[in-house]
């Protein structure tokens, strides 16, 4: 539905503002390998529940930004850093949100009908408390940070 898609886009934009383009900070990164389990050898069983229940397990008091039938979103700030926690009414809603949000970069910790989005360090720390699967967003940067890596992995417009 049109309203659901609007909420997905709004949530993705909030994520972009909160998480920024976290991409390859530290360690020189290996591109899109994402959740290879380097820092989380013993991952707990993936949690389930409401936004507040999941936030409690993540040791966060969420600042609720969106409270709709399709999704609920809260911003969290902990000692690990800032992140966005979103719960969904359906698995399909979660997958559609992830697919759109990945274009904005960042890292995503994905559970059953929930996602936590932030930079790599925050997502790794959260995985130790919440379980889940790590997914990486694209490393697309708009603007001229010029910080590293060539354009060979950059998808977009091609000339010629």
Binned strand content: 15-25%
Give the C-alpha Rg.
16 Å
Helix content: 25-40%
Number of helices: 4
Major pleated sheet: 6 strands, antiparallel
Oligomer: single chain
Strand order across the largest sheet: 1-2-3-5-4-6
Shape: globular
Question: How does the helix and strand content classify structurally?
Answer: alpha+beta
Distance between the termini: 38 Å
Concise structural overview:
This protein is an alpha+beta fold. The chain is 29% helix and 22% strand.
Q: What order do the helices and strands come in, and which of them pair?
A:
Blueprint: H1 2-19, H2 51-57, E1 63-67, E2 71-78, E3 81-88, H3 91-101, E4 107-111, E5 114-118, H4 120-130, E6 133-136
Antiparallel strand pairs: 1-2, 2-3, 3-5, 4-5, 4-6
Could you describe the 3D structure shown?
The protein is α+β, with helices and mostly antiparallel strands and 160 residues long. It contains 4 helices and 6 strands; from the N terminus they run ααβββαββαβ. Strands 1-2-3-5-4-6 form a 6-stranded antiparallel β-sheet, sandwiched between helices. It starts with a helix and ends in a 24-residue tail after the last strand.
What are its keywords?
160 residues; alpha+beta; 4 helices; 6 strands; 29% helix; disordered C terminus
């Amino acid at each position: 539905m049109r309203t659901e898609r609007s909420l997905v886009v709004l949530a993705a934009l909030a994520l972009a503002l909160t998480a920024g383009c976290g991409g390859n900070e530290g360690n020189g990164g290996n591109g899109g390998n994402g959740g290879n389990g380097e820092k989380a050898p013993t991952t707990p069983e993936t949690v389930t529940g409401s936004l507040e229940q999941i936030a409690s397990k993540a040791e966060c008091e969420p600042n609720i930004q969106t409270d709709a039938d399709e999704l609920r979103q809260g911003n969290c700030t902990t000692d690990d850093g800032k992140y966005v926690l979103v719960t969904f009414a359906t698995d399909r809603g979660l997958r559609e949100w992830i697919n759109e949000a990945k274009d904005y970069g960042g890292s995503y910790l994905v559970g059953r009908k929930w996602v936590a989005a932030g930079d790599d360090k925050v997502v790794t720390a959260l995985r130790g408390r919440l379980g889940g699967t790590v997914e990486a967003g694209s490393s697309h940067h708009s603007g001229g940070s010029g910080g590293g890596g060539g354009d060979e992995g950059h998808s977009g417009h091609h000339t010629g």
